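Exercise 7. Predict the joint structure of the components listed below.
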Amino acid sequence: MDGEVTHPLEPQLAAYIATRMPGAAEIAIDSLERISGGASRETYRFRLIWREDGRTRERKLILRRDPPASLIDTERRVEFEAYRAFAGSAVPVPEMLWLEEGSEALGHPFFIAEELTGFQAAPQMLFAGGYEAVLQIVAERKWTILGEIARADPIALRLDKWMPTPTLDGCWSRELAHWEGILDRDEAEPLPIARAAIRWLKANPPPPAQKLSVVHGDYRTGNFLYDQAGDIHGVLDWEMAHLGDPLEDLGWGFNPVWQFGRGLEGGLVPRAQATAIWERASGLKADPAALHWWILFNCVKGQAIWVGSARAFIDGGNREPIMIYPAWWLLNAQDRAILKVMGRP
Amino acid sequence: MTPEVPSVLFELSQLLMRNAAPDVPDGERASALGLSAMLLGLAAETWDGAAHNLVVENRALRELLDLAGEDGDLHLAALKAENDRLRARLIAAQVAAEAAGDVARQDAIWAELLASTERRRISVSLV
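Solution:
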């Protein structure tokens, strides 16, 4: 079937890119296909072909377009700028090319970025057996990179221009209020376990953040590109990036659902080992009580996201199966994770 | 499960119809069919026990909340609506127990909440 079907987005995309590449001629798009798994953005890969300086050139690119209704409602500008902030740093990210915040070109806002090819992202493949010998290397890279994100100065990266800057003692309350608000807005049924967790979090606040950090917001196994040697070549899915407590990202990765049933953090190594790698790379300390607070918080945040995906489906804003699967797969698992973290197993 | 199974099955039927058309790109068809298959599998897994689990849970919640009543309408939608009503009452009861420092009452509520996650547990649960 290759070559017989032209995706309806291809001509629109070619027309848009022509406006951004004035030195290019004969711009064409081919092999455009949607990549599964993108519930907060529609993600497509495609090949861009053009002529420039008398030569034919090509490049593999990614299109991330807002869907009609999303699992996570965020500004694409924030995601775009977060990627750009870490370009060329110890945090590997794909190159960002163009951001379009209007809906004229492709119907919804979008950005276009370099595709990092030849790597894998799926946790299922990582844990299928073929990578067993390199899981320690993946873990070392995973939490070293997260430590680098935590160590970075968001002001020097100029991310405060795009992201609100909370006070050090206000990081936790800002995030908790945000995700409790999402639950209030989107829940389709009473959630007694999540509500009990929220009450506990409010009654037992963590200490102020050690520093203001960039928080990736979804740093977990599945959101980075790895190779067969266990190296990591790209950190993806920055749509929930914000400024806040560096322990927040560590806690999200320690949400028990991201153990993938393997009894190891991120499915990779014990918590003490992951934490030690992160502390070494970040130069920060992971106080156990504060970290516990952030892990439980992230269980609530996860529940808000899964509830949001169900809401998008129920309201008819997005009826795609990718909106159902997180809710069916994770709502109860997340409740069980909350019980585990609260010591109520 | 939320969203409700009937609405999901209807949507999947529409999706399968759309993907029967010849002009759907291969990658998108594969993605849609793969996800649909996983969802159909989960629906099949939960179908037989859905009404039973709701009746059992509603009975346990009434006992815990000291409420009279029985499920007369065994349609899943009716059982779920009653379950939502009772779980909202359970939240209020838990808040009250916390405020009163009634540890025994809190433990009983936590035990029911744990049992509720066992009833809802699916074979591919991550926790």
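Discussion. The mean pLDDT of chain B is 94.
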